[in-house]
Specification:
This protein is an all-alpha fold. The protein is about 55% helix and about 5% strand. The protein has 13 helices and two strands. The two termini are about 35 Å apart. This is Sterol desaturase family protein.
Length: about 325
Amino acid sequence: MPSDAEAREAGRWNFRPQVPLAQNPLFQWPPKPRAIFRWYAAFWLEISTTTLCFVIAVAAYFLILPELAEMQVLGWGWVAKVWLANLVPQVICAGTLHYWLIMRKGQGTQTKYDPRDQARDNGTFTFGNQVHDNMFWHIASGITLWTAAQVGVFWAMANGYAPTLLFPGNPVWFVAFFVLIPIWSSFHFYWIHRALHWPPLYNVAHALHHRNVNVGPWSGISMHPVEHVLFYTNFLIHLVVPSHPLHVLFHGYVQSTHPVFSHSGFEEIIVGDKRQAKAGVFFHQLHHRYFECNYGTVEMPWDRWFGSYHDGSATATDETRARKKQMYT
């Protein structure tokens, strides 16, 4: 029987997954090999946003991305191809999710965290509409600056300024880097995100993303250009660590397409009363509701280590509110 506090906390949500929320067992002691295997199997051996990003990256690499030799000289032709390689899958993923979950309401409110609809006639948002606001910043700023970051890396690779890696030369590292990219992204995201909650940066940039308390698929990378520039400094690792253009593409989709699903507002995609795939991330949904918690991701336990972890419980909500009150007094 849940306590009164837990019942009130659960009542704040249309759907709340089982709490306390789990985090990556890779960083727990003593080691739990089976738990670690199950954790990564859920990302790589099942249909997940990670495997989707990998499939999109492979398709984009073979169907769209030019050869490195062509990218030695900056030119609108190949830059446009990189932009389209980002735009098309992003629009398909966000558009399809938005249509099914928000417009058609194909699964009603099943597994929907927040019962409210996307905001309309609300002056908080550009154009007074949450969806139009999100689409504009997502595409005009997000996809453009994401592309610019990748173009810089591709140009550096093509001209020998960034170390490149070929599968035949080092197959173990070639494969391992795909697993390490989401971990690196989590590490980078925590520290950039934490910096964005510094009041001057928050007011200038991050407040735009936090207009979305009740998130939707287009909220994923709906950010201010200043935030996008900081967000995509993630790609600088490719100027230091040997990698391949396929890694750069995969990195971009992990960084930008995964948030489409994690911000969908729904725990799972349900079609025909059957669970088809996991979508939302309640860990990050809690951040959009309570702000000063869960700055990172479940991939790395930075929030637990630095005292900002919200595990979904009523106790964690009380602690977060107390911390927030202390921060702003």
